[in-house]
Structures are given as structure tokens and as C-alpha cells.
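Notebook, student rotation project (T.W.).
Task set for the rotation: take a protein with a known small-molecule partner, predict the structure of the complex, and write up what can be learned from the model alone. Partner molecule chosen: S-adenosylmethionine. Sequence and SMILES entered below by T.W., checked by me.
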Amino acid sequence: MENVIECIKKEVIENNGDFKKMILSDSSNEIKKIIVRPVEIKNRAMFQIERYSQNKVFHENVELNAILDISYFEYRQILVETIGRDIIFSKQKSGYKRKEHSNTLRPLDINLSHNKQKSYIINEGEFVPAMIDLGIFTEDGKIVRSKYDKFKQINRFIEIIDDVFKSIKKDEITILDFGCGKSYLTFLVYYYFVEKKKMKANIIGYDLKSDVVDRCNEIAKSYGYTGLHFQMNDVKKDKLYDGKIDAIISLHACDTATDFALDYAIKRGIPYIFSVPCCQHEINQTIKKGGDFDILLSDGLIKERFSALLTDAVRVEILRAKGYNVDVIEFVDFTHSPKNIMLRASLTNKNGSFDEVERLIKKYNFTQKLYELTK
Ligand SMILES: C[S@@+](CC[C@H](N)C(=O)[O-])C[C@H]1O[C@@H](n2cnc3c(N)ncnc32)[C@H](O)[C@@H]1O
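Predicted structure of the complex:
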């Protein structure tokens, strides 16, 4: 019994938001089954206990430690579900036998609005139909487990957009998405502005892959999303959009595609930029030893990471030189993506200078696309 109680203390009460539910079953007691779930009530983390008798269900919300008062030993089977693992206790003559296995192939079944760790702008269970076609949600509105990281990323992206736009009153908005890929984010941005903010939205996603672009256009059309379009275009060379643009977004647009997105915004004076850069090869391939940073250029892995950080630092400096106020934000936790820096920029009328970037380029002899495009 002790190992059951220890497990409940650790996995259920002291969990880091990973606890999903606990099911006690197989009992000769009048209460045949008990289900415990995390709930948030008036900003307090609590548990909801559901007790099932032969023909009735009783609900009770209790403080965290109160679940230790349940008569566990009356149930022969106890299942503790967390994100990623199931822990099962089966009663034997000698006590409870513990088994544990991964549950990563099952869809998630957690009501995130009740999760004490996080409340999302778009919650699981909220019916975003296109998200089912795109493979993020199952038919019954649960997150497909293999898409959990993507779900986290796009929700966080919307959260950061919401931070900026919640106080801005506009009837209409135009946003371009550079390197939209399967367009989970593009659809969610459209949904956010049209369904949540009740605005007219004109959102265009650009990508090189024609099959993905066609599929996204089909899905958008099937839901009557008249302001959401996808085009097969190379953001490095094709002419994109003529009208007024309010913001550009890019999520993991490959290598220098991010630089072309930033350059596009700079040249057109687009007021807002939300960009999470991806793999960054250019500085890593061109930088030479030349001074104080040499210790960071001797070993491949350190050089690669240093070059990625230097790339983003150069981009920030250039955006500032071109009149943008830039916030460098942790996008998602490293476990959900190692490419986790977001550059969020808004246009001001203050300009900075390229001096520091030029000094470093001279000293370390690297090339950087945004600098080449904007100098
Ligand atoms: C890593 S995926 C990210 C897709 C999507 N933004 C997401 O986060 O799920 C990068 C996408 O950028 C697209 N891409 C790369 N270079 C591009 C270019 N020059 N023009 C348009 N799209 C490009 C690729 O085809 C790919 O779909």
C-alpha cells in the first residue's frame, strides 16, 4: 500500500501539470469506481472526485491533500495517467504490484483549461474544425499525441500575438506567413482573428511545396474561410503581396527564408513582425577566427550554437537599426522545440546603426543574409 500512497503523492499531488487522471476500479464496495481529475476553481488547483455507485455518480471537489483520504486498498486496480506514462497498481496477495508503460501513442485526454499549469488561448475541446483536418486534433477534439509539441508551439505563438493585439482596435487585418508548410499556425491565426477577435482577416501563407499549398487551400475553402489563402511562392524571389500589410509571421522558416521575411517587413515598413527562426547555416559556414570569440569557434557543436545565436543577435541589431523595437522572447520550452527564440518587433520612428554588426563582420569575416539585403 505504501508504494501506492508514495506514487500518489509524487505523481498526482506534487506533479508538474503532467497528471491527467486516476481511476480506481474493481471493488466489492458500494462505490465501484472512482475517477480523480485535476481542476482549477477560482484560480486554485484542486481535484474533482467522481464516485460511481451501481446507478449514480457523485461529484466532489477537494483540496489536493484530501485525495490521500480515499480508501485505496478497497480497489484492486489503480491507474494513474500522466502525460507520457501510465502507472498501474494491481492488488495481489502480497500487496500491490506496480507496472508502468509509455502511453505516447494514445491521443491526449486532458482538459487543459483545468490544468493548473497552463491556460491556453485555444483550448483542447474547443472545436477548431480545420485543426482536425490538419491532424492536430482527433475527431472528438483531443490533441493527437505526436502533434503535442506543435500544438504547444502554435498556441504559444497565438499567445504572443494576442499580447500585442488584445489592446489594438481594428476591424480588419492582413498578415503574411513566410514558409507556412502544413499551415497549422496559419489556420490558427485566422481562427484567432476571425472567431476570437471578430475581425475581418486576410491571411496568406507562402510555401514552396505545391501539394501542401493545394491541400491547405482545399481545407480553407471547405470551411468557408474566405480570407485565408495559400500560394506556392519562393519568398526569396517572388513578388508576394501588393496591398497594405499589418504583420508578418514566420515559424521555423528554413535558414535564410527568415531573413527574406524580415527584409520584406523592413522594406515595406510593416508594423509588426513575429518570427521564430529555424536552422541557421550561413554564419556557421563562413565565420573565421579573429579575436575574442575564438574559443567559441574551435569545436563544431559550440561553433554551430554560437553561430545560431550570433545570427539572431545580428538580426535583432539590424531590425533595431531599421526602426523596430525588438523583444527576444523564449518561444516554448526547449523540450517542445530546440529552436525556441522568437523575435517580436514593432515599428517605431527611432533608428539605430549598423556599426556593431559591421565591426563584427569585419573582424570575423562572416556573411549574414539580412545584413546583405538591408545594408
Ligand atoms: C520547417 S517548415 C515550417 C512550416 C510551418 N511554418 C510550421 O512551423 O509548421 C519550413 C517551411 O518553409 C518552407 N520554405 C523554405 N524556404 C522557402 C522559400 N524560399 N519560400 C517559401 N517557403 C519556403 C518549406 O517548404 C517548409 O514548408
